[in-house]
Amino acid sequence: MSAGHHHDHDHSELSPMELRVRALETVLGEKGYVDPAALDVLIDTYQSKVGPRNGAHVVARAWSDPAYKQWLLRDGSAAIASLGFQGRQGEHMVVLENTPAQHHMVVCTLCSCYPWPVLGLPPTWYKSAPYRSRAVRDPRGVLAEFGVALPEGTSIRVWDSTAEVRYLVLPMRPDGTDGLDEDELAALVTRDSMIGTGLALTPPARAR
After folding, report:
1. What whole-number distance in Å separates Cα of residue 118 and Cα of residue 148?
2. pLDDT digits (tens, 9 = 90+) for 23-35
3. How many CB atoms lie within 10 A of CB 157?
4. For 86-111, how does the pLDDT look when each residue is reduced to its tens digit (9 = 90+)?
5. Considering 112, 128, 155, 161, which one is annotated as catalytic?
6. Does 133 qualify as catalytic in the annotation?
7. Quick one: residue 15, left, alpha or beta (phi over 0 = left, psi -120 to 50 = alpha)?
8. Are residues 38 and 160 in contact, defined by beta-carbon separation less than 8 angstroms?
9. Is 108 a catalytic residue?
10. Where are the domains of the chain?
11. Known active-site residue 12
12. What are phi and psi of 193, to 5 degrees?
């Protein structure tokens, strides 16, 4: 992981913007303008379903279209934008391909830089101090806690997401997926697999 990146964010656990948003949510909830439960559902939908589905379709296209995959690895920002997924926090994207020999994992060591257009809102653990520190010091141990056991011969590289560059991991395509269309392939792609803390699902796992 390269050092010395500049982060254009507050270094505390919550940025000033996050603190203002949280205060606004509290005020609106107390005045009865917003149902906190409904807001939680909305946030969960964007974090767990809508946002990551964008990235899943990017991955599925790369798995099924070799020319698109090469473009994605060469110019992630342009290739992702061609599918209509662009916007703030996703202007400068680099895509990292996982292989049997090389596994990539993404962290933001100083704050929580995250590619919103393709992954939605960052999960709570991604913003936590333990993940941000341990991912760099003990990536294999962190992966084990996520249930990912890589072969000893697989090298792990940790990438530090910054205000200037954000990363998307292109997970390995699972075996037994020949003949699946892009929508079926996208259903195998998890948010964690695009951060590098998980692997793509296999068809039997999806069926369960």
Report:
1. 22
2. 766 776 677 766 6
3. 13
4. 655 556 889 999 999 999 999 998 87
5. 112
6. no
7. beta
8. no
9. yes
10. 16-207
11. no
12. -65, -25
CB 189, CB 200: distance < 8 Å: yes
**Are the CB atoms for 166 and 117 separated by under 8 Å?**
no
Instruction: Quote the CA–CA distance of 187 and 49 in Å, as a whole number.
Output: 11
pTM of the model: 0.75
SS3 37: helix
Residue 23 to residue 38: CA distance in whole angstroms: 17
Active-site residue flag, 193: no
Give the model confidence (pLDDT) of 121-160 as tens digits: 888 899 899 999 999 999 999 999 999 999 999 999 999 9
Question: In the chain, which ranges are E strands?
Answer: 93-97, 102-107, 155-160, 166-170
AA letter at 107: V
How far is residue 91's CA from residue 94's CA, in Å, rounded to a whole number? Answer: 10
Distance in angstroms (rounded) separating the CA atoms of residues 96 and 73: 7
| Residue of 108, 128, 133, 193 marked active site | 108
Confidence of residue 208 (pLDDT cuts 50, 70, 90): very low
Top-level class of domain 16-207: alpha beta
Q: Which residue among the candidates 77, 82, 111, 133 is catalytic per the annotation? A: 111
